Amino acid sequence: MNILLTGGMGYIGSHIALSLLHDKHKVTILDNLSNSNIEVLNSLKFISSEEPNFIKGDVINTELVAKLLKDYKVDAVIHLAGLKAVGESVSRPVMYYKNNILGAVSLLEAMKSCNVLNLVFSSSATVYGIPNFLPISEEHPCKPNNPYGRSKFYIEEILSDLVITDKNWNIISLRYFNPVGSHESGLIGDHPNGIPNNLMPFINQVASGQQTHLKVFGNDYDTPDGTGVRDYIHVEDLSNAHLAALNNIDSNNNYQNYPLNFFNIGTGKGYSVLDVVHAFELANRLDIPYKIYPRRDGDIASSFADPKKANNFLGWKAKQSIDEMCLSSWNFQKNKSQ
Ligand SMILES: NC(=O)c1ccc[n+]([C@@H]2O[C@H](COP(=O)([O-])OP(=O)(O)OC[C@H]3O[C@@H](n4cnc5c(N)ncnc54)[C@H](O)[C@@H]3O)[C@@H](O)[C@H]2O)c1
Predict the structure, then answer these.
(1) What is the rounded average pLDDT of the residues 19-25?
(2) Which residues is 232 bridged to in the sheet?
(3) Which of 74, 165, 187, 248 could be cross-linked to 69 through a Cys-Cys bond (beta carbons 3.0 to 4.6 Å apart)?
(4) Residue 10 carries which DSSP code?
(5) Domains, the chain, with CATH or none
(6) Cα→Cα distances 11→83, 195, 201, Å
């Protein structure tokens, strides 16, 4: 298939690009490089020996998106372009709503005008907010508690409206849990600027000496060791979920009576912060000093997925272990630090 991959130069998008190229899809990347670097393109070419098309531009530019859909005879779009930092979304909500929601609306407008009606959307477990029950199944109510999560939820609502009014659309929304790890080459990975908000890049920075210690926010949660529990998923497993979604995009199944097809993408296992620290230390034979700090506003005790719906309907299942996540994550950081 000819795929338009928005946000394809970012952490997750670059891994999806490799999976698509590996499966012989033709890939066109649209990215404004607001949170990524042009060097990623060279890594993609080097690893895959393929030449993805790259266009620097913004999804908010509807005319540009329509032109790309036509020029590259696109069959399906995978839409990742978006801003993703929860904390920043709280301090700059309008920027988040504008970029994420207007970006999605612009893309949908362009897709409709070109009759390209197959879409896989990058959603997030943050749409659920503070869980009422665990593991979180798709039956869990959506009550996002920050602007980032709300932007994903509102986009899903728009997508639902679209599939209700026009049955020709084929849309799958994937609700990612906590993507970590890197491609086995160690050439692409998660490389945030400054002090990371997420656990694994922070551990990487401690391991490489950029930070003296890991900040563990809260050890008095109602979890086995008191630290927060999350469902970490290897980014390569996550990429494969997109291939599975594309394979099922036009099956026209109305899974579980919702207008929009949405799926949890996680492993179903929860690991605490200290579990991950210890797994990283063991896998990489390194010490990760840490200190306990007060809880962060908005953090929750535990979140992990019930991934059965994706397992059953998409025929997809996460395969990689927490050790593999820790090994590949450090492999990327080591390469980056050299
Ligand atoms: N990383 C996570 O923990 C996580 C979890 C759940 C969902 N997601 C979603 O997955 C998607 C990708 O996340 P990521 O971690 O790879 O983030 P990322 O920031 O590494 O990648 C996003 C890419 O989109 C580009 N971009 C942003 N706005 C754009 C716009 N208006 N037009 C064109 N390009 C634009 C950025 O330059 C970047 O390359 C995002 O939509 C994010 O919300 C991420």
Answers:
(1) 97
(2) 178
(3) 74
(4) S
(5) 2-179+232-265 (3.40.50.720), 199-230+268-305+319-337 (3.90.25.10)
(6) 12, 16, 12
